[in-house]
Design a protein that fits this description.
single chain; 3-stranded mixed sheet; 2 domains; Alpha-lytic protease prodomain-like; 12 helices
């Protein structure tokens, strides 16, 4: 039965509750907001604080875009005008993040039973594309300035505006990095990276303006080109990072180890394999796994144990886990010896190979040896080649064996 010992395996913080209340309106000061965010926020709390962070970004970026735009047009610096356009695109990114949080918070419905959480990932992808597009625009405008240099007007207002912009963006980078990490939000993390890029961009613009003024060297276009290349590279990196959860990335080794620790802490559980985690947005995970139990266990007792494990994950981990019972023969010395021998043989072929679900069916002329092999995707051998090689080794060890091998691929971890 489910005991307090199992309750202590993982942090007992429920992510979902039928009677859950919305969090209070967040504080006005961003520093207080970051402190208010709980360690394991619910989807409603994530949306609440994510909306707040997006609004902060809209206000800051619109103000910076207006200030830089006025100064850039007055001074004739194309790099400053481009920087203003970049801030305007950042404001657009914050609006997209805001829309993404709103859409992701929509409840599940008949057509989308897993919810709408992936809208947040889509918002992060759009933000990343906007960053890359801003880099391309910077490269184009800077190239034109290099080919057609124009006279610029350096003044203290320009210096003050750029210094203020650097300070604001440096703070925004810190703010979005903190809140994005606490909310585990890809759009906010991407905004933090973009704010860091803006610090570098604006600092480079200021440096080129100072050098151009004192040494009479026109670095405006060259500086803008370098900044544009950097922003484009960052945008491409963000696209790669935000596409990953949409395609279906594997859970981290830490997550796999934690799930295994919870499952194997229950009575009569020998092991676990074939773990799969499906991510439909932050706080909306669904999983499945095969749980190994002795073949002698009462089927009702085993079913009750699986029910308890599934209930634990639903109440304390915030995702639905569906478990399948795999009976394991543990009292047959011949099967145990064969299992150990096959495992050792697999390690000689590739240390990352593993097997499970071994069973033997003796007959008058031969013995069927049935099992599954877990093969990582990067093993340099086809499934058929692997089956032929292992079958040959088993027949050499056990001449009456007829192998029935199924090759599985690791969706989470080889050890899982």
């Amino acid at each position: 039965m489910y005991t307090e010992r199992h309750r202590a395996v993982a942090e007992p913080t429920a992510r979902f509750s039928c009677n859950e209340r919305r969090p209070p309106v967040p504080s006005v000061l961003p520093s207080q907001v970051i402190r208010e965010i709980p360690q394991d926020p619910t989807p409603q709390q994530r949306t609440h604080y994510g909306n707040y962070a997006s609004i902060v970004g809209i206000i800051c970026n619109v103000a910076l875009a207006l200030g830089k735009g006025i100064v850039g047009l007055a001074s004739g610096y194309v790099s400053i005008i481009a920087d203003a356009i970049n801030n305007l695109s950042d404001a657009t990114s914050s609006i997209i993040s805001l829309i993404g949080f709103k859409l992701a918070d929509r409840p599940a419905d008949t057509g989308h039973p897993f919810g709408h959480g992936r809208f947040e990932y889509l918002a992060g992808l759009v933000v990343a594309v906007i960053v890359a597009a801003a880099g391309i625009e910077l490269i184009i405008s800077s190239g034109r300035r290099i080919l057609n240099p124009e006279e610029t007007d350096f003044n203290l207002v320009l210096v003050f505006m750029l210094l203020a912009s650097i300070a604001v963006k440096f703070w925004m980078q810190y703010f979005y990095k903190r809140i994005g990490t606490k909310l585990n939000s890809e759009p906010l993390k991407a905004t933090g990276v973009d704010s860091r890029n803006d610090v570098i961009t604006t600092a480079a613009v200021l440096l080129s303006a100072v050098i151009s003024y004192f040494y009479h060297i026109d670095l405006d276009g060259i500086c803008g080109l370098a900044v544009g290349i950097f922003v484009l590279y960052s945008g491409i990196s963000l696209v790669r990072d935000t596409v990953s959860p949409l395609l279906g990335r594997a859970p981290s080794q830490e997550e796999v180890d934690h799930i295994r620790k919870v499952i194997t802490s229950y009575p009569n559980v020998i092991g676990m394999h074939d773990l799969m985690i499906h991510d439909y947005g932050p706080g909306r995970q669904f999983g499945s796994a095969h749980v190994e139990m002795p073949s002698t266990i009462n089927i009702m007792e085993g079913h009750d144990t699986l029910d308890n494990i599934e209930q634990y994950f639903r109440e304390h981990e915030g995702f639905v886990m569906t478990l399948h019972l795999d009976p394991i023969v543990i009292n047959d010395p011949a099967v145990n010896e064969l299992r150990a021998w096959i495992n050792d043989t697999l390690k000689t072929i590739n240390p990352r190979l593993s097997m499970h679900d071994l069973r033997t069916v003796p007959g008058p002329t031969h013995t069927n040896v049935i099992f599954d092999i877990v093969k990582p995707y990067d093993v340099d051998m086809s499934d058929e080649e692997l089956k032929v090689l292992i079958s040959k080794k088993i027949v050499e060890h056990k001449p009456d064996a007829v192998c029935k091998i199924t090759v599985d691929h690791a969706y989470a971890s080889v050890a899982a």
